[in-house]
Each structure stands twice: as C-alpha cells, then as structure tokens.
Amino acid sequence: MTEKHDPIESLLKAVKHNTLSIDEAKQQLSHYDELGFAKIDLHRKKRQGFPEVIFGEGKTKAQLIKIIESLLKHNEIILITRIDKSKANAIIAHYPQLEYHTIANIVCTPIDSIEKTEHYASIICAGTSDLPIAEEAAITTEVMGVSVQRFYDVGVSGIHRLFAHIEAIRKGKVSIVIAGMEGALSSVVSGLVDHPLYSVPTSIGYGANLEGVTTLLAMINSCAPGTSVLNIDNGFGGGYNAAMIVKMIESH
C-alpha cells in the first residue's frame, strides 16, 4: 500500500532544510485569509479534498476579485458559481487565465487544464429549459477533476430518447438527473442503473410546480432505491457529490 503524504511533515522538513522560510511556513499553516469582508478558508482542500468554492450571487465585483486573488495566491483551483455576465466579464478582464461558462453561470480554472478521472459521471437532463442547472452540475464535476458524459433532452415525454443512451449512462459510476415539472425522469433512471444517483429538481414548470417544490417532493417520494435528492436548482451540489463518488472509487 502506498504511504500517505503528510503535508505538515513535509512543511516542517522544508523549514529544517532551509528551503522554506518560517514566514512562508506560517502563511501555509494559516487556517484562513482575513479580507475583512470575508475569511477565505485555506484548509478546505486539506479537509475535504477541494478548495473553497465561491458563491457569486450577492457579492460585488471588487469582493470577488479580492477573493480570487487570495485563492490564486495559494495556487488553488477557482470555481465561482451563480455569476452573472457583468461580474463574469469584470473578473475575466482582471484574470484572463480563467474562463466563463455562460449557460452554467460559472467562472473557473480552464477545464482543459485539469486532469480528469478515467471513470465518468453521467449528467442526465430532462429538457432544454433545465440546461443551466445541468451545466452547473457538469462544469462543477469537471472542475473537480472528474470526467463527465452529457445526456441532454431525454425527458419522459419522449422516453425513447433516454433508452437510446441507456448503456452509456450505465457505464458511468454515478448519475446526476436534472429535471423540472413532475421530476419523473429521476425515478425512471434510478430503476435502470446499478450505481448511486443524485436527483436535482429544478424550478421549471407551470403554476402547480410551485417553483420546484412539486418536483422536489416527487423526487423525495421516489419508489426507486439508490436515489439522493438535492435542493431545488442545486446543480452545484449534485456535481460536487458525484465528483466525490468517482474520486473515491479511483483512489482505491
């Protein structure tokens, strides 16, 4: 068995051998970066395997730029969710090394620069109206270093479209199903695969959909086992959880 790398021990050895100054070591050991309006969690990657993710909604352009500066200073991967076009353009102008995904409303480290897993997650989207949430899930998964296969517009109103891709979906190690309306796609897929499935209800639907509450309740009440349900429109959560599953599989 491969011996686990101890970052603290490596840090102490670097100080001992004068390849790292005491001030540099103190900075690396710091638990967070104090920005006044935010405390950037610098140990998130050590605790959870992935750096702190920035929720873009509600933050100013200036705040976002300062937070990114802190993360880049510590060589962290950047993932900003729920970012509108105006803020995204300001960030890209300041940090042209990042990229903006318009459908997902995400700014991140370039996807192609991140090494991906051999196994993949299946991202399954019911309809075109659900694409922003599906892409939020897909991009999150990819930024976390996990390969994805996208299967879009395969909702139950034309279920033959799903069956045309079912073998490829089954080859994934985890599925994320994104659907609005009555959310039936989640139960259908869960009954056809032998791996974990994360359901993401969207707020897409007519009046009695209640902005996704009906979909959420339908998915929670699914009779198909092996399903975990995320919050309404939480594509990020679905992608994050799916990435953890695949990375855990490949680490063993």
From TrEMBL:
Gene3D superfamilies: 3.40.50.1970. Residues 119-251 form the PurE domain. Pfam families: AIRC. InterPro entries: P2CMN_synthase_LarB, PurE_dom. This is Nickel pincer cofactor biosynthesis protein LarB. It comes from Staphylococcus succinus.
